Amino acid sequence: MAGDANNFPDLEYDVDTALVWKCPLSPDNNTTVLYRDKDYQYVASSQELLNKNCTFVSNMFQLLSAFDELKEQNEAMESKIVKRDVFHSSWFKQYHNLSVMYDWYKSLAHEYSSNVAVKSIGKTIAGRDILAVVIGTDSNQPAVYFQCLVHPREWITGPMCMYLTQLLARADSSNNILFSLLQKYQFIIVPVANPDGYY
């Protein structure tokens, strides 16, 4: 069972009975409980679950379809954010999918075309582009290389690379540290090194 077993003392040792999402629970949280058909009576009779606002799901296909719908809604909302303001502070507090991230980098390169370029450095087995962001105009300078999202569980590296790229792209003489780094180095950032594992 996923979540804090202390919230469900009568289920805490029966790990194979149910998956519970959105813990810790409080009376006003909506919670999803995934269970096998044969375990419905046991799971549904749990006093801890009955006292919460729970949605019981036995059909994984329906659950995944609902997640897909939410994902599509989030993607539509994210693309509006990209078009509205690629530098909005809330942007870096969210995780974005591959196409939204790639659109963001292309918008950034368009905004700062004098010193930022985005190019494909190869294709994955599934045919997805592996993009590199090059910041700096002198290719003879030593390069500083960053790569993010190598493994599918490295979610935080995506926003970190985006934030770093934004800082470097916007650096000017008012930011002495970043500006001096850009005078000495070219930055090459591969924001999603494993697009097939993170899309």
UniProtKB/TrEMBL annotation:
On whether Iron is a keyword of this UniProt record, the answer is no
Q: Which GO terms describe its molecular function?
A: metallocarboxypeptidase activity; zinc ion binding
Q: Which residues form the Peptidase M14 domain?
A: 94-199
Organism equals: Amphimedon queenslandica (Sponge)
Please verify whether the record's keywords include Hydrolase. yes
User: A GO term (biological process) for this protein?
Assistant: proteolysis
- What is the recorded name of this protein? Peptidase M14 domain-containing protein
What PANTHER family does its record include? PROTEASE FAMILY M14 CARBOXYPEPTIDASE A,B, SLL0236 PROTEIN
Give the similarity note.
Belongs to the peptidase M14 family.
Superkingdom of source:
Eukaryota
One Pfam family it belongs to: Peptidase_M14
